[in-house]
Amino acid sequence: MSNSKLAYILTRNATYAQKHTSPGSLLARINARKSAGIQGTVIISCSDPRIPPETFLALEKGEAAIIRNAGGRTRDAVRSLVALDAVGNLGTIIVVHHTDCGMSHTDEAGFRAKTEARHPGIAASEPGLVFGAIRDPEETVVEDVEFLKSFPGFGEQMDVVGLVLDTHTGLVKQVV
Ligand SMILES: [Zn+2]
Known about the structure:
Number of domains: 1
Shape: globular
CATH superfamily: Carbonic anhydrase
Radius of gyration: 19 Å
Helix content: 40-55%
Strand content: 15-25%
Structural class: alpha/beta
Number of strands: 5
Bound molecules: zinc ion
């Protein structure tokens, strides 16, 4: 990152902080929600900077925790998901894949070849590396929901749903 870009970001943060109000203690929030029987919601969605879930799902502040990674793949999200469940007692998991995703324009072999070309030797040093290329978001979102439901207790104790966002219209549809 250039120094000027970082300086610009830090300047905007300073401006933001002037109007920031503290969200309050996390433990107080968790305890209040637990005693009210409110379970947490997590959204797993793509890192694509064009499509923040806060925007296309019109989320209210504090409404859901969000895990973002390349493609919104659930295998990639497992550590965060189980940690969030331990902290916040999850009741709903929403997986969102989307059209025109960067993970859909190259296949698994293509990702491997591009990465190997930029960083020779990386494939040998990370033999288990799976990129999670997306063939069709309506297929992969089903695979990813099924993967989460295969976790002990997840399918029984939580609502796990899969949506596909049309990147260009902004509409989501429930696939599973
Ligand atoms: Zn994407």
